[in-house]
Amino acid sequence: MRDIFIKACNGLKTDYTPVWFMRQAGRYMPEYQRVRQKYDFLTMCRTPEIAAEVTMQPVRILDVDAAILFSDILIPLEAMGIKIEFIEEKGPQVHPAIRTSAQLNQLKPLEIEKIQYVFEAIRILIRELNVPLIGFAASPFTLATYIIEGASSKEFINSKKFMFSDKESFHKLMAMLTDSMLLYLKEQLKAGVNAIQIFDTWAGILSPFDYELFVKPYVKRLIEGLKSVPVIYFCPNATGLADQINETEADVLSIDWRIDISDASRLFREKTIQGNLDPLTLLGSEDEIFKRTTYILTGGRKARSHIFNLGHGVNIHTKVDTLKKLVDFVHNFKHKEE
Predict the structure, then answer these.
(1) Is 93's pLDDT higher than 70?
(2) What is the pTM of this model?
(3) What are phi and psi of 269, to 5 degrees?
(4) Pairing between β-strand 133-138 and β-strand 91-95 as defined by DSSP bridges
(5) pLDDT above 80: residue 335
(6) Of all residues in the chain, what percent carry a pLDDT higher than 70?
(7) Cα(80)–Cα(74) distance, rounded to whole angstroms?
(8) Can you give the pLDDT at residue 336?
(9) Are 255 and 245 in contact (CB under 8 A)?
């Protein structure tokens, strides 16, 4: 197995910068679209052979240094008494929404046998891949926002109302989600994943005080239970939470484009840095893409170690050939300098 990604996760300096992309298996890729025309999204997630094939497509086509399991952060909710739907133009929908202490009993502890298809896809991939496989889950807080809001949100009014009006019940919800995500991720480890990424997509909406109170204890507990492999923590808008995030014990911090990578290397000096090209840069000229990539790769050398990635997922309008050229550029960057 090509292990340069794992070496970087573990804080080792590498001969070249490893690269993979969040949402690298997706709608921008014609091979994915051909599969998607035959099956709806949830059917793809629930069918191990299809999920495995879609996971492997970008590895074969782009030559990235890691694969990430094709699935969705909301999948575990199906095993917790919650219904999920993916509706065009509306995005993910969660039923029923849970917004009061009285409604908490609608959420059940994770019944792991109901989502065995996830682990079967991992077992297939471990047999087939020549690069490490990243498993993943949402953080307890990000999952809580979907359960409370019932969908994506811009203001998170219901989530913050719940937090600030009934702290005890909110902590009860967070404890249940932490238990369930820990079980879910440990099953991924048993199936063979080589690293874990925790998506704390919405924690950046919180003040440092509220992150400390409502998020950090649960993230720390989750990460501490997964230390047999490297753990990557993705928390956009994380600059104001640097002190708290440094205490989570994640091995890798995945950053978005809102922070200079040199600043991130200084703020998170004990962690490998992953990132941080703005995904929409890939819709611009090649000169601009490579100029900004050079800046990031150069700044990444100040970090403990560096994994090149985007600051979020690949945009649907990205050209496959652009990503291929970007991967080649990253792989050859040291050679170009010499």
Answers:
(1) yes
(2) 0.96
(3) -70, -20
(4) unpaired
(5) no
(6) 99
(7) 10
(8) 47
(9) no
CB 34 within 8 A of CB 53: no
**Residues taking part in catalysis:** 23, 27, 36, 72, 146
CA 100 to chain centre: 28
- Written as one string, the DSSP assignment of 110-177 is P-GGGGHHHHHHHHHHHHH-SS-EEEEEE-HHHHHHHHHHSB--SS-HHHHHHHHH-HHHHHHHHHHH
Amino acid at 101: S
Query: What structural domains does the chain harbor?
Result: 4-337 (3.20.20.210)
- Sorted by sequence, the CB contacts under 8 Å of residue 94 that are 6+ apart come out as 74, 77, 82, 83, 84, 146, 147, 149, 150, 151
| Tokens representing residue 188 in the block | 């991924």
Contact 188, 122 (CB under 8 A): yes
Quick: pLDDT tens for 160-219.
999 999 999 999 999 999 999 999 999 999 999 999 999 999 999 999 999 999 999 999
Helical (H) or strand (E) element with 309: strand 306-310
Tokens of 274: 């992953």
